Structure formats: structure tokens, C-alpha cells
Amino acid sequence: MVDELPDRVTKGRGAVSNRSGRFERASRVTIDDGWGSALDGDLPPLRTTLTVDTSRSVITYNRSPDIPFDRSINPYRGCEHGCVYCFARPTHAYLGLSPGLDFETRLFHKPDAPELLVKELRAKGYQPAPIALGTNTDPYQPVERQLQITRRILEVLDGCNHPAGLVTKSALVLRDLDVLSRMAARNLVHVCVSVTTLDRSLARALEPRASTPARRLDAIRQLSEAGVRVTVMASPMIPGLTDHELESILETAAEAGAEGAAYILLRLPLEIGDLFEEWLHAHAPDRARRVMSLIRQCRGGNLYDAQFGRRMTGDGPYAELLRRRFHAACNRLGLGGRSPPLDLTQFRRPEAPGDQLALF
User: pTM for this structure?
Assistant: First the structure.
């Protein structure tokens, strides 16, 4: 007879457990093997591993009415930032991995993404529209420092005058300020910076390997000063945990130079509900019950509602109050709605060796 051990917080990681994905026949639990090894001292640190993603395409298309773009690029699967609430976590289950700790330690990258992008942009009949980077996992997560896949993608887009939008919570975006400022001068790029909380301690627990709130605000400031249009994403708003900061986040970001704002109510699809509840009991046990109750009040009694038109903002009195607070703050601070459209008319298909020169 073996004793099942409770999951423990791992330093520098967001998820508390590595529970099996929804497609697995067996579930994994931590046990005491009788030798006390699982109880003695700290466990070995979880190392980040990288595996090549062999996908033969790089642009993903969608028809969602909830988002203002129809195509995106995600250079990475999994995200080392470790945000416990990340709505992309369930995608790791398709790989036979856990949406928990596996999602933030077992990463997949597309080293040939820029080359694949050139091929797709050169395809006969391709029609340009803004390409979003960072819609699933962050394009500026820590491994990007060495791999530089996102930068190479931006260089391709810059070279052929293709418009793009970036979503990130990393100050690493400033590394590519040279490319972004060039594109911004031609109305070809827009950056969204996510700020979940201004509380550094809470951010460290929620998003253990993401940039601190102060560094994200500095990124907004430097991007704005360089002429890059910036929107602050006050996302996700977590009822009973971060929602009281909504106005403060918007005010601070506006002072830093943000021109627009958006917010998303916490989404807990599939495995994320259990992972988030584990996190609450580990990091905020005194608020866990209230937070989960408020989330259900915004989701028709459930942890998640996938209905278009409601999944981003929720429903019910609490969600409506949050919506009104957001719009009132935006009106007061001069944070407009969606940014003016990016310019599609400058696009020119990437050239390749051997291309015939045009006569006109």
C-alpha cells in the first residue's frame, strides 16, 4: 500500500501539478515509495526542454467573431512564462502531455518558421491581412532570447511590408524595437502589452517567468516613445483577485503612453479549471472559495462558457459591472477602442533567388 502525496508548489513554475491531459487513459499521482525520498528536501528543479515542431505551415486561420484578426503565427507551443490561467494550456493534451507543468517545461519551437512564412506569403492568390503573433503562447517567452524566431518572422514581415500585431507580456519585445519602429513608421504594426496585476508578489505567483509589471509598463513607455502604437491588455481580469486593479492598470498604462485598452474576463476551459483551483488553494487559500464562486456567477453557474459573444467578457451582474467600469475608465483616460486599421496596400510578395524582374 502506497500513500498518495499532495502536489507541491515548484519554485519558478505556475502550475501546482502535472495532472494528465483529458485524452490519457491513466492519471499520474505523486506517491511515497517508502524510502522517504519524495519528502526529503527539495525536489530537483524542473528543466525546460525544447523539441522541434515539424509542422509544414506557419500561418493559422480562424473565423472567430470574438477576435479582430483571421490569421496568426505562434512560433512556440507551450510557454515558459508559466501563467497558471493560460487558456492555451489544454493544447498540450493533443501532444499526449500535461496542460500542467509539462506545458511550461516541455516546449516546441519552429526554427524554420520564417522560411515557411516566406513560402506562404509567396503563394499564388495570397491576400494580405494583419497577422497576429502571440495569440496562443507568448512570442517573447524566455527561449526567444536565444532562438530569435520571432525576430526573424518580424524581419520577413518588415521586408515585404506585411502588417502585423503583437501580443506579449514580456519586456523582451524592446529588443526588436528597431524593426518595430520601422514598421510603425509605415503603419504596419501594433503592439498589445498584457498587464494582469500591478502587484509584483502576486504576479510572481501567477506568471512566474514573465516580466514584472514595472518592466511591462516601461516597455509600453519605450514603444510609445518610438512611435509604436500600444494597447494595454488588462487581462485576464480575475474576479475577487485582480479585478479591483482594473482602473489602476488602465491609469498607469495610459500615463506610460498606451493609446488603447482591452480586457478579457478569466477563461477556464477544460483542464485549466482544476489547475487554477489548485493554484488558488496553494497561493490564496483564504480567497479560493470566493474567487471560484464569482467566476461561476459570470459563467452561468459553470467555470467556463464557450459561447461566442460571452466567452471573453462573461455574463451576469458581476460581469456587467466589470464591463461598465472598464468603459468608464477608458472614457475618462482617453483610451480609445480599437486602433485604426493597419495599411494593407504596401504589401509586396517576398522575393526569392531566380525571380524575374518586373518590367513596370
Answer: 0.90
